[in-house]
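$ ./design --mode recover --in tokens.txt
reading tokens...
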């Protein structure tokens, strides 16, 4: 990978705004990207994890989620990929994080194998997430996320914008909130021919591994980033190997509101 309640929360997540307003608790229109703003200027930190954070040097490792929670505010867990794969560590990690202060949500790796499987991917993700106890934004659970990127450094040959829309609509119907979209501008330009309209209207979680420069706005979309993945080689107490590092573009109170707290 390149981590208000009810009606009010739905409005926050589904609106065209990207940056929460710090003083009022409402959501303000996103400011233009500050191209040189470093990741260190954002104080609400998080990670995202998968089975890879449970492997080090060919041996199985565990995560101390209580240790992670002492230095970070949120985590996104990989839950599923495609129409059949389930991350082997998702369920135990999700349950363990529920016992900490970390705000969290599952994510799905969008991996199309044919040009009509968007809904099937969504239903696989929904089943696995629900079985682990995910119910959507409430009591510390952030909106669900979908990871749309290259597969083995190549654009997915079966990628279609209408199937991305089908996935997003099915997940929104299941959990009552528009999913967060993880990707980056290079992917949209290269694999979607610069046409990112299918991603418009969704909170953006963007990757850019230059910690001194914010992610570029996605072509064809209506907002800037809310979550920024700025490193894939981070070191975090409680995790043995490298982990993806993220920041949130807002205050801790605003992140908690996004998670129904």
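writing sequence...
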């Amino acid at each position: 990978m390149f981590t208000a309640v009810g009606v009010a929360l739905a409005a926050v997540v589904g609106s065209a705004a990207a940056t929460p307003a710090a003083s009022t608790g409402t959501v303000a229109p996103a400011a233009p990207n500050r191209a040189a703003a470093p990741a260190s200027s954002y104080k609400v930190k998080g990670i995202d994890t998968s089975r890879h954070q449970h492997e080090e040097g060919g041996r199985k490792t565990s995560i101390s989620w209580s240790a992670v929670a002492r230095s970070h505010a949120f985590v996104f867990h990989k839950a599923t990929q495609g129409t059949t794969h389930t991350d082997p560590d998702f369920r135990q990690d999700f349950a363990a994080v529920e016992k900490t202060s970390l705000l969290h949500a599952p994510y799905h790796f969008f991996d199309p194998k044919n040009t009509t499987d968007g809904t099937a991917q969504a239903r696989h993700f929904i089943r696995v997430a629900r079985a682990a106890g995910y119910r959507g934004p409430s009591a510390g659970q952030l909106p669900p996320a979908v990871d749309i990127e290259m597969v083995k450094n190549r654009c997915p040959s079966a990628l279609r914008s209408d199937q991305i829309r089908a996935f997003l609509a099915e997940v929104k119907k299941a959990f009552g909130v528009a999913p967060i979209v993880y990707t980056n501008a290079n992917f949209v330009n290269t694999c979607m021919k610069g046409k990112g309209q299918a991603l418009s209207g969704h909170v953006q979680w963007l990757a850019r591994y230059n910690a001194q420069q914010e992610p570029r706005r996605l072509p064809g979309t209506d907002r800037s980033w809310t979550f920024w993945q700025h490193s894939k080689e981070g070191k975090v107490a409680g995790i043995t190997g490298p982990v993806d590092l993220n920041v949130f573009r807002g205050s801790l109170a605003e992140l908690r509101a996004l998670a129904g707290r």
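exit 0
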